[in-house]
Amino acid sequence: DVQIEEENKLIAKAYKELLKISYRSLTDDDKKLIRTAFDMAVDAHKEQRRKSGEAYIFHPIAVAKIVASEIGLDATSIAAALLHDVVEDTNYTLNDLERLCGETVAKIVDGLTKISMLDKDEERPISLQAENYRKLLLTMNDDIRVIIIKIADRLHNMQTMGAMRADKQVKIASETLYIYAPLAHRIGLFNIKNELEDLGLKYTEPEVFNDIEQKIAETKEEQQAYIEKFT
User: Fold this and answer.
1) How far apart are CA 177 and CA 183, in angstroms?
2) Are 228 and 187 contacting, i.e. CB atoms less than 8 angstroms apart?
3) Cβ pair 199, 151 in contact under 8 A
4) Of 47, 94, 109, 187, whose CB is crowded by the most CB atoms within 10 A?
5) Cβ count within 10 A of residue 143
6) Are 176 and 154 in contact (CB under 8 A)?
7) Directed axis angle between helix 166-175 and helix 126-138, to 10°?
């Protein structure tokens, strides 16, 4: 009971942080929409946990934070990010989402659910999967927010892959380098593209990654001295 109470405090704290970090000034209606989406997500995922053992709800909150702070999207996108796994993984339906959060949020979540269905085919080669992604994304050009939220979802998954099996890490990292990093580049999300590439290298070429990381650490003092001298 104590652990659950502590976890609930952390969830409430994460929600407050989400409202604070948005680039946009949120209206009362925006806050109401985000709160509705948050409450739905908490209820939908209440029995679920990630491989790391933490409550699943922390994942959609983290994706919503990326959408709000690093990309600067609107309240509709934040709500859709909070709900992005609800239809795929829980008993909530698109009709439920449309009734409580509006048609646009429901459409975005529907697009995200369709993309996730492609991710679940373990046997499909990445090159063929990329082609299927291309075809699917061409049908979604009416709302680019679907793709942007999916990229944010993949970024958080890459940031938290430590608890996964090594073969799964390599598969997801390879897929990220082949599909998601180029997508982020095309859309103009350069910071996210760079982080996806770094994380992809960490799992596909760990020796190269560790070597580069070590060299950067070794030259950090030298870099700092140069910057101070230049300043």
Assistant:
1) 10
2) no
3) no
4) 109
5) 16
6) yes
7) 50
Alpha-carbon dihedral angle through residues 63, 69, 71, 75, given to the nearest 10 degrees = 80
The two three-digit tokens of residue 213, written as one number: 């990381």
Q: In angstroms, how far apart are the furthest CA atoms of the chain?
A: 61
Both tokens assigned to 3: 């652990």
| Cβ burial 207-228 (10 Å sphere, 16+ → b, else e) | eebeeeeeeeeeeeeeeeeeee
- Map residue 49 onto helix, strand or coil: strand
Question: What is the pLDDT averaged over residues 159-187?
Answer: 91
Cα–Cα nearest to 75, from 16, 26, 2, 131? 26
Model pLDDT for residues 113-164, shown as the tens digit of each residue = 988 877 666 666 666 666 766 666 666 556 889 999 999 999 999 999 988 9
**Which pLDDT belongs to residue 216?**
87
Token pair of 231 as six digits = 């300043």
CB-side neighbour CA atoms (13 Å) of 124: 15
Q: To 5 degrees, how large is the angle CA 77–CA 30–CA 142? A: 35
Which residues are annotated as catalytic?
88-89
- In the block, tokens 């993984």 appear at 89
Q: Contact at 8 Å (CB) between 97 and 83?
A: yes
- Inter-CA distances, 98 with 94, 116, 139, 151, 212, Å: 6, 20, 21, 23, 48
CA gap 173, 179 in Å, rounded? 10
- The answer to whether 132 touches 118, Cβ cutoff 8 Å, is yes
At 55 the three-state DSSP class reads strand
Tokens at residue 19, please?
């409202």
